Amino acid sequence: MPRREAARLLRRLGPIAVQSPKRGMPHNQYESTNHAVNSYRRFHWIPSVQHPLCGPTSSGGIYEGQRSANKACEVQKRTFGSAATQFQRNPAYSVLNSDDIAYFKSILGENGVVQDEDRVAVANVDWMGKYRAAIPFPESHVRLHNVEKSVHILYSMLSLQVSKILSYCNTKRLAVVPQGGNTGLVGGSVPVFDEVIVGLAGMNKIISFDNVNGILTCEAGCVLENLSTFVENEGCEIVFCYSIGQYKFCKFIWWMPTENHIFDFHARGLVDLDLLLRFIMPLDLGAKGSCHIGGNISTNAGGLRFIRYGSLHGNVLGLEVVLADGTILDMLTTLRKDNTGYDLKHLFIGSEGSLGVVTKISVLTPAKLSSTNVAFLSCNDYTSCQKLLLAARRSLGEILSAFEFMDHHCIDLAMQHLEGVQNPLPASPYKFYVLVETTGSDESSDKTKLEAFLLRSMEDGLVADGVIAQDISQASNFWRIREGISEASVKVGAVYKYDLSITVEKLYDIVEEMRCRLGDNAEVLGYGHLGDGNLHLNIVSSKYDDNILAQIEPFVYEWTSAQRGSISAEHGLGLMKAEKIHYSKSPEAVQLMASIKKLLDPKSILNPYKVLPQSVL
């Protein structure tokens, strides 16, 4: 389309309303949430009818926590992620006895040692029902052992309690599994056999927040969404404006007001909302309503803000970690710079609880920017998605905060199985969809940049159709579609999930290869963080089938290795991929990791059977 014609279409459609969703929060969080614009800001070759969306859905979805043991086990026979790795219980580990339980009760009290069957059953199963204690493989396989599942959960409230538990378990050689929100996807947070579960949910205190530098210090059991709410609302720089005679004065103070206070002061002209300084967490996940920050650290979770703020290795300033022998390793610095010796905290970020139990964290939180836009776009082919990413980096630059892609199979699945969502581009014939989010501090400039980017992309044939969210519910709907794909796939049947890191130009090739291999036997979904080169490959069938699994593995790992990619971009290795690490790491690297494990955990009591192959330990 010629630029003149596109510009004329823009003028006819009217101005863009700038939104700032916290997956659906308004541009300014003190605006009325009743404000709504009942039409999308659409970019079309041919103008079409506008379709308002429904209201926002819950951010957590099914990640809000397993509500009962039965609920957690509903999908046990339907969801699988890897070929069955049949483990034998390590006979070197002791079995929990009454003396051990009495000791733990002396540390934690009666309520700290949970023996309730329903609560214990939930903790023995991951949220998807993929892995559960004593059955680390689908029930359709022959069981090689007859070991009871874990029957106790130890809920600690203090680092000292964790220290005493680990010291005792190390002496007695009782295997331990640290557990947070249990939202992982590779079996890293549940027992394989009868390991002692050390739950960290009780360690949920916010220790301090430096609202000058945006540094948060908290305990490992804090839920990510709660931390996000805290840093966005607790503590801000506020400007009071007042007059004495003909003179007007402004005063900067630090305060922790409520939203009602701020809105009231703004209405009376006492507060300049543009000068409020607030913060956000550097990561955001679909599981934020349940996952714990300690688990995020231990798995080096990536998420939706990675393209803007990078990995946790760059945002975590300090850690407190309890080692296998009970040593409390205090690295809880809040310094931005510290060049004294080895930076040991990086050993524990992404170690999945196999080297130590993270108990406290200090993390740098970026400033919350005032202007946010969310666009939902369609492309005719994957090449257009790649070129669109390059164009977004070039045109949007520093305000680009998310670039997520989905193929049309994902959209179809989401529309069928997610309640309360609508297709922003109904009845569209396109093969790929892209969600673009921008965040910045200059509303006018950001809007101009986004308009120019979309116009240029349409002229170049990269974008076939698109909409920009005009209110909270629309922005929430866009994100709900993207974040709900995993949830929707579970509702179909058996799901084989793979989390791959591949160069962007090759990223979708594996999806097409899988479709050729599987034909009509399964549906193959491709989506993920295109800006990070991270593909989520989901293969869905009505029921678990050994033949389907044999067509997937080890091909998916061999293909990824041949591209010099990673078999785990952000989910970790856990139980699912521990024996597959050689597809991404050299033998020398694996041996060095094993040496570190033996140094820090010589009896191998921490999260056994996970991360590293048993043959190297």
TrEMBL record:
InterPro entries: FAD-bd_oxidored_4_C, FAD-bd_PCMH, FAD-bd_PCMH-like_sf, FAD-bd_PCMH_sub1, FAD-bd_PCMH_sub2, FAD-linked_Oxase-like_C, FAD-oxidored/transferase_4, Oxid_FAD_bind_N
PANTHER family noted in UniProt: D-2-HYDROXYGLUTARATE DEHYDROGENASE, MITOCHONDRIAL
Keywords associated with the record: FAD, Flavoprotein, Oxidoreductase
Pfam families attached to this UniProt entry: FAD-oxidase_C, FAD_binding_4
Gene3D superfamilies named in the record: 3.30.465.10, 3.30.70.2190, 3.30.70.2740, Uridine Diphospho-n-acetylenolpyruvylglucosamine Reductase, domain 2, Vanillyl-alcohol Oxidase, Chain A, domain 4
Domain FAD-binding PCMH-type: 144-368
Cofactor: FAD
PROSITE patterns linked to this entry: FAD_PCMH
Record field: transmembrane: none
Listed name of the protein: Probable D-2-hydroxyglutarate dehydrogenase, mitochondrial
Catalyses which reaction(s): (R)-2-hydroxyglutarate + A = 2-oxoglutarate + AH2
SUPFAM superfamilies found in the cross-reference section: FAD-binding/transporter-associated domain-like (SSF56176), FAD-linked oxidases, C-terminal domain (SSF55103)
Family note: Belongs to the FAD-binding oxidoreductase/transferase type 4 family.
Functional summary from the UniProt entry: Catalyzes the oxidation of D-2-hydroxyglutarate to alpha-ketoglutarate.
A single GO molecular function term of this UniProt record: FAD binding
